[in-house]
Amino acid sequence: MVCIGSGSSNGIIIDIGWTRTTVVAVFDNRVLQxxxxxxxxxxxxxxxxxxNSLKVEDLNIDRISxxxxxxxxxxxxxxxxxxxxxxxxxxxxxxxxxxSGVISELYxxxxxxxxxxxxxxxxxxxxxxxxxxxxLKSILASRMIITGGISNLAGFRSKMSSKLNNRITQEVxxxxxxxxxxxxxxxxxxxKKLKKSDSLWEIRK
Length: 205
Prior knowledge:
Layout: H1 2-6, E1 11-16, E2 21-27, E3 30-31, E4 37-39, H2 43-56, H3 66-74, E5 86-89, E6 92-95, H4 96-108, H5 121-131, H6 134-141, E7 144-147, H7 156-167, E8 175-179, H8 182-195, H9 201-204
Parallel strand pairs: 1-7, 7-8
Antiparallel strand pairs: 1-2, 2-3, 2-4, 5-6
């Protein structure tokens, strides 16, 4: 659905969800299930890690709501901003580096002895590309699309591209984002209209 929404039939989709992040290869509008990867480094884990870091800062995390954390994340100008500049988080002012540090650690750092479902996203993408047939590697690696709000943070996609190019020999194309399930909404709208057409009986089946 994301590929169709982006105007392509091929690509590697990185879906950063709430409970897990899934990396999927799509070729000729078909999901290559055998190459699908996932990790629990996703939205829920990010909030959990952020609360732990704020607790280390001696803040009362009971006074910080889910919405407070979301708002603070959106105030980051760049995920690599490790400055001591302050941003609002509920009733507190917190250094930007606390948030950027957690994001970088969660999504890009490969800790030793990780379980298979705890690998960072870059490692999942690299494993998927490394395992693809030789004739598909360049086709799929040239088009990567991220879904999920975190992907819209400044610096997130450029850092992912840099990490990937350092990890694998296959050249990686620019990583784009459709935001939160933009592809799914476009696809579902198109399909609803097509199914109402009497001339497209094969789709109605």
